[in-house]
Design a protein that fits this description.
The chain has 4 helices and 3 strands. A 3-stranded parallel sheet has the order 1-2-3, covered by helices on one side. Strand 1, helix 1 and strand 2 form a beta-alpha-beta unit.
């Protein structure tokens, strides 16, 4: 069986955009129907409100379960982009960046 990883953009982080979800889901369903082992890979956008983050993840997981993709979703969070300049930044700069991008909840 061929394994396929779909790397999608802003679906889990945008639970109110149903049409956006279907754009990618049709590919996943079609590939699965053709016999592929399909995995859904997505970067979660930073959210400052932990309740909103929990809602976004729960809503996404429920939708994926409805279509038989439970256990085949790979969600990851990337708090801050790093560059050579950013990696040399002082500790207060890193702390400010952490507060801006994820409410200081994740370690960057």
């Amino acid at each position: 069986m061929t394994a396929v990883v779909l790397s999608v953009n802003k679906v889990a982080s945008f639970p109110d955009g149903g049409g956006h979800f279907w754009v990618y889901l049709q590919y996943a369903l079609g590939l699965r129907q053709l016999g592929c082992e399909v995995y859904w890979l997505e970067q979660l956008r930073p959210v400052r409100d932990p309740d909103r983050r929990a809602y976004v993840i729960a809503t996404f997981q429920d939708r994926m379960k409805q279509f038989g993709f439970e256990g085949r979703t790979l969600l990851y969070a990337r708090c801050c982009t790093t560059s050579s300049k950013a990696s040399r930044a002082s500790s207060p700069v890193r702390a400010a960046r952490r507060r801006r991008c994820c409410g200081g909840q994740m370690s960057c």
